[in-house]
Amino acid sequence: MSDQPAISIRNLVKRYAGSGGEPGKLALEGVSFDVPEGGIFGLLGPNGAGKSTIINILAGLVKKTEGSVSIWGFDIDRDLRNAKRAIGIVPQEVVFDPFFTPFEVLENQAGLYGVRKELRRSMELLRAVHLEDKAKAYSRTLSGGMRRRLLIAKALVHTPPVLVLDEPTAGVDVELRRQLWELVREMNAGGMTIVLTTHYLEEAEELCERIAIINHGQLITNQPTAELVGMAREKIVRITVDKDLAGPPMEDAFLKAEVLAPRTLEITYDRDRLSAGQVLALIQQHGYAIADVTTREPDLEDVFVSLTSQAAK
Ligand code: ADP
Ligand code: MG
């Protein structure tokens, strides 16, 4: 492996054109990150965060406003042709001509990339995505899951070292999601660098060695998955007390204490260090009686909130 990243993105800005005098949407506000070679990299964020905008810039479908992007060492402004050859993109939307067979879909795509007949590997790709027996079926007869797998094969006809999948499992059932994860792992084991976007934390956690989180067009974090998941080791307990709070009860053992209403507070704590019972006991030591308690597991949003508040410090 070389030290050169598979993808390098610097200060990427995208402002979509406005209409009717309205200013355009600023979808990316200066995003920078590298995708290391050889791993499975997750680009995570809620709907509207800017994930597809990044992917579509990589695909050459959306023109960036500012910044630079290199794919496999090729700058997309200076060497688009080589950059495009280095990457395969599976778009978020499943669309293709229903009248071609999967084999024809791959042959046509290979033609578009100028892959010579003797170098084409349509059957091999269909085998790789477990669609060999559907090679001659009409694409319109394929199930949703088969269509997604065909799109993956289609992205691979020019044998790119980098494969990008935009929300590969949005709206697919659990069984197919497992199949797609397996396929991604197989391809990565074969040496391919994989980038996938998702808004499922669980999916990123399961598959990706490294996760970048994007929200409102800004990169919030980019770190090994194990570290990020560690942040979700926090637990949250919401407590209602018997009288108005003088302020958030401060304890070293609390990660955060927040007053939500005159008699309601939320305590964030590390579940490896404290139990909910210990949290309640500490509150009682501050002179409050407990009227009501609810706990919740932190979700992706909590990770976002804790990361953005850290960034603001
Ligand atoms: P994600 O893939 O993370 O859900 P997108 O990159 O699709 O997010 O969208 C980011 C933001 O840019 C959203 O506010 C979206 O409405 C806006 N946007 C996306 N595509 C266009 C477009 N073609 N024209 C105008 N705004 C767009
Ligand atoms: Mg998207």
Write the topology of this structure.
Blueprint: E1 7-15, E2 26-35, E3 40-44, H1 51-58, E4 66-71, E5 74-75, H2 80-85, E6 87-90, H3 102-112, H4 122-128, H5 144-155, E7 162-166, H6 174-189, E8 193-198, H7 201-207, E9 210-215, E10 218-224, H8 225-231, E11 234-241, E12 254-261, E13 264-270, H9 276-285, E14 290-296, H10 300-312
Parallel strand pairs: 3-8, 3-9, 6-7, 7-8
Antiparallel strand pairs: 1-2, 1-4, 4-5, 9-10, 11-13, 11-14, 12-13
Helix pairs in contact: 3-5
The structure holds adenosine-5'-diphosphate (ADP) and magnesium ion.
The site of adenosine-5'-diphosphate has 11 residues, from helix 1.
What does this protein structure show overall?
The chain has helices at 51-58, 80-85, 102-112, 122-128, 144-155, 174-189, 201-207, 225-231, 276-285, 300-312; strands spanning 7-15, 26-35, 40-44, 66-71, 74-75, 87-90, 162-166, 193-198, 210-215, 218-224, 234-241, 254-261, 264-270, 290-296. With 313 residues, it is of the alpha/beta class. It has two domains: 7-229, Rossmann fold (3-Layer(aba) Sandwich); 233-297, Alpha-Beta Plaits (2-Layer Sandwich), CATH 3.30.70. α3 (102-112) packs parallel to α5 (144-155). It starts with 6 loop residues before the first strand and ends with a helix. The relative contact order is 0.13. The model has no long low-confidence stretch (mean pLDDT 89).
